[in-house]
TrEMBL record:
Native source organism of the sequence: Nothobranchius furzeri
Sequence intervals crossing the membrane: 110-128
Known role: Component of the cytochrome c oxidase, the last enzyme in the mitochondrial electron transport chain which drives oxidative phosphorylation.
Name of this chain's protein: Cytochrome c oxidase subunit 4
Pathway where it operates: Energy metabolism; oxidative phosphorylation
Keyword list, A-Z: Membrane, Mitochondrion, Mitochondrion inner membrane, Transmembrane, Transmembrane helix
GO biological process: mitochondrial electron transport, cytochrome c to oxygen
Oligomer status and interactors: Component of the cytochrome c oxidase (complex IV, CIV), a multisubunit enzyme composed of 14 subunits. The complex is composed of a catalytic core of 3 subunits MT-CO1, MT-CO2 and MT-CO3, encoded in the mitochondrial DNA, and 11 supernumerary subunits COX4I, COX5A, COX5B, COX6A, COX6B, COX6C, COX7A, COX7B, COX7C, COX8 and NDUFA4, which are encoded in the nuclear genome.
Subcellular location: Mitochondrion inner membrane
GO CC annotation: mitochondrial inner membrane; respiratory chain complex IV
Membrane association type: Single-pass membrane protein
Gene3D superfamilies recorded: Cytochrome c oxidase subunit IV
InterPro entries membership: Cyt_c_oxidase_su4, Cyt_c_oxidase_su4_fam, Cyt_c_oxidase_su4_sf
């Protein structure tokens, strides 16, 4: 299907944009990611981070009338503010407290569950291979066969100086 006019040009522009992104970032080489809007880093931004205790701007910029009156009340003595008003003022400036930021996420449970899943799956694959893929064990691994082989080596007096035969007492019929 051939595109004509403006549609063809915009499609070509979109494809070249994807190619430029993919060529400039090797990770995006195989990913069809859309280019997101740029963020003006010169403007103040809000972020909750442990290493940045005071963000550039407050959490809430647009305030209601009640919040505006609370902000005016903030300029006075803090001893006249109730506990709830202090918390509300804090929540106007910050989204989370340090305790909330440090709170564990519980992600370790997902990680441990994933590890157990993959270990279990690997165990099932190994079990399946032992039953259906590998040949049966050779008869030479059986204890009866090994006992017969040992008796044969003793009867042949194999390595009588330092080997099996040196440790076997032929007169008593037992190990020395």
């Amino acid at each position: 299907m051939l595109l004509k006019g403006k549609n063809r040009r915009s499609s070509l522009l979109a494809n070249t944009t994807r190619i430029k992104c993919a060529s400039s970032y090797w990770l995006l080489l195989f990913v069809r990611a859309e280019v997101s809007d740029t963020v003006d880093m010169s403007r103040p931004m809000y972020c909750d981070r442990l290493d940045i205790p005071l963000p550039d701007k407050p959490y809430r910029d647009v305030l209601t009338d009640a919040e505006e009156s609370l902000k005016q009340k903030e300029k006075g003595p803090w001893s006249q503010l109730s506990r709830e008003e202090k918390i509300a003022l804090y929540r106007l400036s910050f989204c989370q407290t340090y305790a909330e930021m440090k709170k564990p996420t519980g992600e370790w449970k997902t990680v441990i569950g994933g590890i157990f899943f993959f270990v279990g799956f690997t165990g099932l694959v190994v079990w399946w291979q032992r039953i259906y893929v590998y040949p049966p064990r050779p008869r030479t691994f059986d204890p009866e066969w090994q006992a017969m082989q040992l008796q044969r080596m003793l009867d042949m007096r194999v390595n009588p100086i330092q080997g099996f035969s040196a440790k076997w007492d032929y007169e008593k019929g037992q190990w020395k």
